[in-house]
Amino acid sequence: MASSVVGAIEPRLRLSEIERAARKPTESLDAYDLFLRALSEGQKPDPERRTAAIELAHRALAIDPSYAPAAALIGAVRASQARDGIPITDSDIDDALRLVRRALDAGRDDPDVLWRSGQVLAMLAGEHAAALNAIDRALTLNPNSAPSWASSAIVNCYANRPDAAILAIQRAMQLSPLDPLAYAFKFVLAYAMMLAGRYEEALEWVDRSLHDRSSNHAAIRGKVALCGYLGRTEEARKWVRRRSTPTRR
Prior knowledge:
Structural class: mainly alpha
Order of helices and strands: HHHHHHHHHHHHH
Mean pLDDT: 89
CATH topology of the largest domain: Serine Threonine Protein Phosphatase 5, Tetratricopeptide repeat
Strand content: under 5%
CATH architecture of the largest domain: Alpha Horseshoe
CATH superfamily of the largest domain: Tetratricopeptide repeat domain
Low-confidence stretches: 19-28
Shape: globular
Number of helices: 13
Number of strands: 0
Radius of gyration: 18 Å
Oligomer: single chain
């Protein structure tokens, strides 16, 4: 019961803090408020909003160079850009990895820093063992953190451990069933099931993810792949065209 309460409260509290920061004039923001605004921008699908998130997080670091949450967030946004096919340079990737390694050193007791940084290490550097170590520490510090469980699922997918990924993402969804990132949780479950060869179930979860956010690039690619696995050629072609001109939502 306590886990369910924490899972319900945490995402709502995070949203209220983001909204509070977004209402303040830019000139009065400190590093924490800049970080919250960056967090809000980074969760939006528009490429320009993610660029804005990186700029805001860099401004937070200009105020406090040791502020690990901002450093980890820059890495996380860069990883999301790479995942969605938004062009980034090798220099951008190197900078992101440098920042998350620094964040891990400074934020060893911050679960959010740990799971974000771990996910970036897996996505941009392929360092799955180091990523899982960071996320396991995050879960030790806060076992009721839905984002930490979701990150564990993502990294286990990258490490080709679908059974562990399925258990982790189901735990995240149980803890936070109304999470603002529920569409992403559903896609991660679909991806893990696809890796496990459970294609029909995976397709059901991809469709649920796309129902929540039709512009989810990863889910659209997953839809195409799953239609291919299941021999649904015409449907796959339709979604390839959809991928070329996605609907924003």
